[in-house]
Records
---
Amino acid sequence: MSYPAEETSSVIIAILLMSFILSAPFFFGGNFSVFPEMLVFSVIIFGVSILSKKLMASMLDADAEHRIWYAGRYWFSPRDRLQNEIPLGVLVPVITSVITLGNFPFLAFLTYETSVLKRRAAKRFGTYSFTEMTDWHNAWIGAAGIIAVLIIAVISYFSDYGLLAKISILYAVANMVPLSNLDGTQIFFGSRVLWTTLAVITLIFFAYALFLV
């Protein structure tokens, strides 16, 4: 699977940013040695989430490319756009981390966009014909990432890595929110049933996360 330069840089920025955000509360206590651990946790969460979405996309003869979460539209009309997009994937996690003193940051950094591979078109309409992804298929690509992260939480919890479990759940909760073009939005508009089911499961996990270290 190829990683375009923009996607690679976006993923690296997201990993480093989440590592610093998760480490910040420990920094204030004078514990600077926690950063490598948070870096490993961030790599695991992003790696599993992205790989799961790419694998699901590949099964649907498509690709899913990631970039930092930006917002350029300030109202509903396509003409209601800002001249320069705002990097919400940087601002929102930092601001919420400050507001919650690092306890419950909004860990949404990346968005994804699907594109159809030539082999999908070839299977369905001939070698030089192309078709678009349905919202239903796109929803399952986003759902794959959420489910994979929740699985990390379960494995971490039963392996006595409570902190990784909590971080994984916070990541899943943030990305399930149907806001802007986050994963939750793409799942919601692809399938209300799928989004509702995942939302309920994620909230149950979040209730447990409140008691994790």
---
Amino acid sequence: MATLSELQEKVKKALLPDTTAFGTTDITAYLNEGVNRIAAGIAINDVLSPPLPELFKIADVDTVVISGTTIAFVDSDPDTITDSGGGFVTAGFAAGMPITVSGAGESGNNTTFRNIATVAAGTITLASSDSLTAETAGETVTIRSPCVALPSDYSRGLAYVASVSQGSRIKVYSSYHKLLRKYPLLDQVGDVLIVAIKGVYLYYQSMPGTAEALTLHYYRDPTAMSADDSEPDGIPSHLQDRLLVNYAAKEIIGLVEEAVKGRTLRSEKYEEKFQRAMADLVAFIGPEDIEPIYYDDDSGYEDGY
């Protein structure tokens, strides 16, 4: 295994005779960038390189829902929904999420709000265009969201999703738009049947009345190298030097050359070495050892419509 300090020294040798423009901190940044780029996938002959097996992870997330008699509605411009129990953040609500309200005594409060502005423990602030009818706490109000934040270390490849409570597999749609074709209002209530990713959120339909744990199988972000004895996370040991030293060298030399006189054969040499190392990595990893992504789409629409 190569350590950070060893990789730094090899990059410095590759930069000879001029190593003054980039210090150890810069080299470390490029080495970590290389690990991240490889983990996220690099195009090889127009095909994205496979995920790194060592970064495969399984984690649970809970659907976002809160229910109780402590929820009130305030007509305050912007209007707010308050919870004297202070449970909104713990339940998983966050700015930007849509929410659906049910169980309020005032019928106008039982609706869907498309984009909440801010969230604190005891207060959800709505967008200025949204309107509530003032209502004190007392009714059993349920607030649901059709999405939950993905794990903070999520990188790529949502390969499999299962519901813990249902004990069954959940369909994974290939895009958020396909989910919208089947559930355009994102307001269906019931067990989770389908999920799709949009940005940093996992969207689902239907929305359960109590938090439902979903088990996600995915590839995580690599851990950045910082200490001298840190090792590249997820990169096979026999390819670490070739991949990361050549990546850092091609990026640094290319940056210097473009600033001075344009791209030259020197930077292209390291680019070619890096691409050969990537080809060896792809051959070494081979086919993924997990089931392919479950991209079943029963929305009733063809792509592009």
